[in-house]
Design a protein that fits this description.
Largest sheet: 6 strands, mixed
Strand order of the largest sheet: 11-16-15-14-12-13
Number of helices: 24
Strand content: 15-25%
Helix content: 25-40%
Shape: globular
Structural class: alpha/beta
C-alpha cells in the first residue's frame, strides 16, 4: 500500500498552499464539535455549486455482499466505473453498505484525484455488530446494562473501521410500543429512560475516545422522529401524536444521543401530523437546530426525499428536493435528487446559496471531525482488515452479551437448569439446529457460523452427547411429512423436551410488520403435540418483538426469551439452560395477553375508570372484553435461578425539597441455592398533576449480584429534575404534591410500595 497522503498533498493545487497553513496541525487529535475549522470555510469558498452538491449526495456502494445489497430496494445498481468517475469529479460525498476494504481504498484514491481532493465518507448499517454479530438491540436492552451496549458498540466499531467504514446508521433510538412494528427489534423497547441510557451508551461505544481516532465510527441516532409511533404498527405509516408526547416520550433518546456526542441524525420515513419528517422544518429546524443547538448533519433515509411525491406532499422530484433541503436535510441518500435538481434550484433563487453553503459546511465539518482531511486513508488498510475481525475476545463478548440478554419468563418446579448428566433431552423445533436465523435482521456483514447453533452447543455441554435427540418437527411456518410424529417419538423417550421455536429473522426488521404477534400456527401445533406426551417442556423463543403467548406455549412450565442472539447464540443459550449462567435479563417491552391489546405499554394512563385493580374485569371499567388491562409478562419482568425477596423499604423523612434529594433504600435477599443477579427497579406515580401522568414511570434501576443466602442494600436517589414532565405550555415543569413509589422487580409487580411528598 502506498504511504498515506499528507495534508500538503491533500491540499495541493492552485491556491491550495495558502489554505494549507490554515489547517490546524492538531486537527486529527480532537477538533471541536462546536467550531468549524477555518480551512473548511476557505475550502467551501473555492467550491463550485456542483461540487457543493456532490458533498450532499450519498449512494449505496457499487461493490457489496449479497446480504447488504438485499437490505434495501435498489432498482438500478450503481457501477464501480460510475462511482469512481463521480468520485474523481467531486459528485459524491460517500457510499454506504460496502465491506470490501480494497474497493474502499480504490474509491478513496479516486476522490484524491478530484480538483479539491475532498475525502469520501464510508457509511454502513452496523446495527448490532459487523463480522461478529451481537444480540439484536432489543435483546441487548433486556440486559438492562447500558455499559454492555457501549462495549458491544465499541467492538463493532473496531471491526467495521478496519474495512474503512467511518459512519454507522445507528443506533436506532425510536421508542416502540406497538409490537406489530417490525423495527421494534432495532431499538431499546418501550421505556424512555431505558431508551435514553442505551442511546447514550451506544453512541459512546461507536465513537470511542474521539472521532478522529482510526477506530472511531460516527454514530447516527435515528429515525428523527416518531417513527416508532406508526399507526397500527405498520411500517412507514402515518404518525399523528401530540407535541407533548413527542417531547416526553420520543425526543429524549435523541437528546441523550446528541449529548453523548453524536454529530449526525437521520430523518424518518413517516409523516408527523401531516408533514413528512423529511420535509418538516419545525422538526429539523425549530427543534433540532433552534432549541437543541445541534451542530451535526442530517441525512435522509433511503430515497425518503423522493418519497415526498408518493406522500402527496410534493408535486414532483424538483419540489421534493426543495422541500427536503430547505427543511434541513443536508444529505440525500440514494435518490440522486440533489444532484439532479439542486444546482438549478440555486441558480433560480428557489434555494439560497447560503443554505447550500450551510449544508456543505456541515458535511465538511463532520469529515474534519473524523480526521479525514488529516489522513483520508486512516481507516483504509486492507492488509490489516481481516486481523481485526472475529477476534477471540470479541466472540467472548458476543457470548457474554447473548447470555445477559436472555429472559426467563417462567420456571415452574425449578425445571431449569437442565442436568448435564443422567437426563435424556429431546431438542425439538425449527431453530434447534439453525444458526442463520440466530443472527437476526440487519446482520448484513457477518452472522453465526456452523457450530454456533443450539444443538451443537448442547451436545458440547452434556457429559453424554448421545443423550440428546434433535428433531426439527416442523418448519417455521408450516409442517412437513413425518415431522410431528418424529417430535412426539423423541419427546416420549425423553425426560425433558426443549422446544426451540419462534419467529424467523425475516419476520422482524424493516418492512416486517405483523398483524398477529403470535407463534406461528405450525409451531403451536408442535408444542401442543409434544406437551400431550406428558414430558416436561422448556420453550426457548427466538423473537424480535414482544409476543402474545397462548395455548401450549403459554402453558409450558419453563419459558426462555432468546431473541436473536447473534454469533454466540447457541453457546449462550446452553450456558443458561445448563446453569453455567443464571438468567439476568428483563423484558424491555411488555408481552401482552392478546394481539388485540397492542399497542400495550406499562406507562399508560389510569383513565377515569381504572377499576378496583388492573386485573379485575369489572363492568364499565377500562379493559377489553374478557381480558384484563395488564400485560401477560410485564416490562421489567424476568426470573433468576435464585429466590429473590424484597424487604425494608426506607424513604427517610418521606419528603423531597425543591433543591434536595430523596434517598430510597431497600434490602434484596437471595434465599436460593444459586448465584443470582436481580434488576431492582424504581417506579413513581404522580397522584395529581395539571397534566395526567402514567400509572408508573421508571426512574432508575440497579443490577445487584447475590450469592446463595446473600443480601444487599440497593440505593436510589431522586431529585426534583427526575420528576419533570411536559406541562400545559409544552415546557418541562414539576409540581409539588404526593407521589407513590415502588421498588419492584417489574413495572406491574407490587414489590415494595411507599410514598413521598415533593415540597414547593
Amino acid at each position: 500500500m502506498a504511504p498515506p497522503i499528507t495534508r500538503r498533498e491533500l491540499m495541493a493545487g492552485a491556491g491550495a498552499l495558502a489554505l494549507l497553513a490554515r489547517v490546524p496541525v492538531g486537527m486529527a487529535l480532537g477538533p471541536s464539535a462546536s467550531t468549524t475549522p477555518a480551512f473548511v470555510d476557505e475550502l467551501l469558498a473555492r467550491m463550485t455549486v456542483e461540487e457543493k452538491v456532490g458533498q450532499l449526495t450519498l449512494f449505496t456502494s457499487a461493490v457489496q455482499d449479497p446480504a447488504a445489497a438485499a437490505a434495501n430496494p435498489v432498482a438500478v445498481r450503481p457501477t464501480a466505473v460510475g462511482q469512481l468517475a463521480a468520485a474523481r469529479v467531486g459528485r459524491l460525498t460517500g457510499v454506504f453498505n460496502g465491506s470490501d476494504p480494497r474497493w474502499h481504498l480504490q474509491l478513496q484514491k479516486a476522490a484524491m484525484e478530484s480538483r479539491l481532493k475532498i475525502p469520501l465518507i464510508f457509511a454502513a448499517d452496523v446495527i448490532h455488530g459487523f463480522s461478529t454479530i451481537f444480540p439484536v438491540p432489543l435483546g441487548e436492552a433486556a440486559s438492562f446494562e447500558p455499559e454492555l451496549a457501549r462495549r458491544t458498540a465499541r467492538a463493532a466499531a473496531m471491526e467495521a473501521t478496519a474495512v474503512g467504514i467511518d459512519w454507522t446508521f445507528a443506533p436506532m433510538v425510536d421508542i416502540a410500543r406497538d409490537a406489530r412494528w417490525g423495527r421494534m427489534v432495532e431499538g431499546a423497547g418501550e421505556d424512555t429512560l431505558l431508551g435514553r441510557r442505551f442511546a447514550a451508551a451506544r453512541v459512546r461505544g461507536f465513537q470511542g475516545d474521539g472521532l478522529d481516532r482510526a477506530d472511531a465510527m460516527l454514530a447516527c441516532p435515528k429515525h428523527f422522529a416518531g417513527y416508532g409511533a406508526a399507526e397500527a404498527g405498520l411500517d412507514y405509516n402515518t404518525v399523528d401524536v401530540s407535541e407533548r408526547t413527542l417531547r416526553e416520550v420520543y425526543f429524549p433518546p435523541f437528546q441523550a444521543g446528541f449529548d453523548a456526542g453524536a454529530l449526525s441524525t437521520m430523518a424518518s420515513f413517516n409523516e408527523l401530523s401531516g408533514i413528512p419528517a423529511t420535509a418538516n422544518a419545525w422538526l429539523l429546524g425549530d427543534v433540532l437546530r433552534g432549541e437543541w443547538g445541534f451542530r451535526g448533519l442530517v441525512v435522509s433515509d433511503y430515497t425518503a426525499d423522493l418519497e415526498l411525491v408518493a406522500h402527496g406532499f410534493a408535486a414532483d422530484g424538483r419540489e421534493a428536493t426543495r422541500l427536503a433541503f430547505m427543511a434541513g436535510v443536508d444529505i440525500s441518500m440514494q435518490s440522486g435528487l440533489y444532484l439532479k435538481y439542486l444546482p438549478g434550484l440555486v441558480a433560480s433563487g428557489a434555494v439560497p446559496m447560503a443554505r447550500l453553503d450551510e449544508a456543505a459546511q456541515r458535511v465538511l465539518h463532520v469529515k474534519a471531525m473524523l480526521g479525514l482531511f488529516d489522513d483520508p486513508f486512516r481507516r483504509h488498510a486492507p492488509a490489516r482488515a481481516q486481523s481485526r475481525q472475529r477476534l477471540p475476545e470479541t466472540l467472548a463478548l458476543a457470548r457474554e452479551a447473548a447470555r445477559r440478554s436472555i429472559v426467563l419468563l417462567r420456571n415452574e418446579g425449578d425445571l431449569l437448569p437442565l442436568k448435564r448428566n443422567g437426563q435424556r433431552i429431546a431438542l425439538i423445533g425449527p431453530f434447534a439446529s439453525d444458526w442463520e436465523n440466530a443472527a437476526g435482521p440487519w446482520a448484513i456483514f457477518g452472522g453465526g457460523s456452523p457450530g454456533s447453533d443450539l444443538a451443537s452447543a448442547m451436545r458440547q455441554a452434556m457429559a453424554d452427547p448421545s443423550a440428546l435427540q434433535v428433531v426439527e418437527g416442523c418448519h417455521v411456518d408450516g409442517s412437513f411429512p413425518g415431522g410431528l410424529q418424529a417430535a412426539v417419538a423423541a419427546a416420549s423417550s425423553a425426560d425433558v423436551a426443549v422446544l426451540a421455536i419462534g419467529e424467523s429473522r425475516e419476520s422482524s426488521g424493516e418492512a416486517q410488520s405483523r398483524s398477529e404477534i403470535v407463534v406461528p400456527a405450525a409451531q403451536q401445533g408442535l408444542v401442543a403435540a409434544v406437551a400431550a406426551t406428558g414430558t416436561p417442556v422448556v420453550v426457548v423463543l427466538s423473537n424480535g418483538r414482544a409476543l402474545a403467548l397462548d395455548g401450549a406455549v403459554l402453558a409450558s412450565p419453563a419459558i426462555l426469551v432468546g431473541w436473536f442472539l447473534g454469533s454466540s447464540s447457541g453457546p449462550a443459550l446452553a450456558d443458561v439452560l445448563f446453569g453455567d449462567y443464571s438468567p439476568s435479563g428483563r423484558l424491555p417491552v411488555s408481552f401482552p395477553r392478546e394481539s388485540g391489546q397492542v399497542p400495550y405499554y406499562y406507562g399508560h394512563k389510569t383513565t377515569g375508570r381504572p377499576g378496583i385493580s388492573p386485573d379485575a374485569l369489572e363492568k364499565f371499567t377500562t379493559h377489553y372484553h374478557g381480558t384484563p388491562n395488564t400485560a401477560r409478562f410485564a416490562f421489567g419482568h424476568g426470573l433468576t435461578y435464585g429466590r429473590i425477596e424484597y424487604a425494608g423499604l426506607d424513604t427517610g423523612a418521606g419528603t423531597l425539597a425543591a433543591d434536595g434529594a430523596l434517598v430510597i433504600t431497600a434490602r434484596i435477599r437471595n434465599r436460593g441455592t444459586r448465584v443470582a443477579e436481580e434488576v431492582v427497579q424504581l417506579y413513581v406515580h404522580d397522584r395529581a398533576a395539571s397534566v395526567t401522568r402514567p400509572v408508573r414511570e421508571l426512574k432508575d434501576f440497579r443490577k445487584i449480584k447475590l450469592g446463595p443466602g446473600e443480601s444487599g442494600t440497593v440505593h436510589f436517589t431522586l431529585r426534583r429534575d427526575d420528576l419533570l414532565f411536559i406541562g400545559r405550555d409544552l415546557k418541562p415543569t414539576v409540581e409539588p404534591g404526593l407521589f407513590d413509589l415502588w421498588v419492584a422487580p417489574s413495572a406491574e409487580a407490587d414489590g415494595l410500595a411507599g410514598s413521598f411528598e415533593l415540597l414547593a
